[in-house]
Amino acid sequence: MTGDGIDRTAVRRDRFSGGPARSFLSSLAADERIFAADLAVDRAHVVMLAERGIVEGAVAGEILAALEAVESAGHDALPDGEDVHEAIETAVIERMGPDGGRMHTARSRNDEVATCIRYRLREDVIETIEATIGLRARLADVAADHTGTIMPGYTHLQPAQPTTVAHWALSYESTVRRDTARLLDAYDRINRSPLGAAAFAGTPFDVDRERTAELLGFDGVIENSIDAASSRDFLLETTGALSTLATTLSGLAEDLIVFANRGFLELDDDYASTSSIMPQKKNPDTLELVRAVAGDAVGGFAGLATTLKGLPRAYNRDLQRATPHAWDAVDAVSEATRVAAGAVGTAEWDGETLAAEAGAGFSTATGVADLLAAAGVPFRTAHEVVASAAERGADFGAVAAAAEEHLEDPLESYVDPAAVEATLDPAESVASRSSTGGPAPEAVEETLSDARGRLEADREGLAARTDALAAARDRLDAEVDARV
Ligand code: ARG
Prior knowledge:
About 65% of the residues lie in helices and about 5% in strands. It has about 475 residues and is mainly alpha-helical. It starts with 7 loop residues before the first helix and ends with a helix.
């Protein structure tokens, strides 16, 4: 009941959706996630309405004071409603009477919710970006410690060629670097304001869309009001980038699981688990969960894409069920990224086991073929010689015997035996691969310093964005304080 004795919420609810579908229709519980966002959006809108003379200054002040009280009471104290937007408005009206309803002048829940989602999602994406930067820093540290740690490299999970732990770690650093870039890109498209689009067709009130955008820290507006109220491609794009990151993480997790299995590394106890029945077990459960998060992310993407596909312009209530897919994906992937960083950053690599395994399965065979090819033997012939050697063994004698069978002249007439011996050594093999991006320590050092530079640049890029948001929060607070 309000000052003029009319219970408007009851009037509205009596007629619509008070029936059995009420809880199906309501997003109030899920909207807790955008409670703070909605309050900020309300404040910016009311400040702008006052500045434009659309709502009287004194009324605006009362609304802003009521919003403060609603904020202190918290989401759980909200009255019932179809969603957080309706519930907050009802709470404001309950506190100050029908003038509270002026808050919804020149807007709709459609532009309001789109603004709230963008407002909240950008914070979540900032967290994910931070997590990717953290992971990259840990990978770079692993690389710095292990430029000389030889390890076996695999294709098809079969021993293939020796490499180093640093080379392996930096391979993930550069993939995750692109994940950071994709998320930064997505952020810049998220960070535009749909507010002022109203239901979809704009409003006859003389609103200042740029002003509310600025007060909320957005980089500008989504211009077309139909696009602004109804598009959710920013959710798809973000979830797509999260899916890509989660896929990268799943590979990293799988590598670590395999390496732990082979005794190449030991996971820190904080990132392992045991069995409830087998007391001796140390299991990589944490990494298995990281691996599984790709399912959450891709599931979120699929849920979103399926929900959004074929929706007509402009707003449809389907959009209410689209949003949580993005929340689930961003939460799961941020956490998985942090956990992966911790697991890889704390693992203890076993240099001896790695070195012993690095030459297994004649992993230096390609190098021997390369040596023959460099001496003038056609590479395909060299390949055959070494393939035949591989059937006999993985040492100089095997190569010499194979050469005798397949080449016109003895092996020594093509290559220096000492060079063959050197090539058969995994560390020498690694050292010889020094072109850009290769595993040789000097090449890795270069990749590493490049990685550190890009890491710093991304840190700065992220800080510029978070600083802009903090500045906008301060600006809005100051405007509100000046009016209550
Ligand atoms: N809660 C809704 C959502 O999340 C916003 C409400 C818009 N409702 C409407 N009938 N147009 O999308």
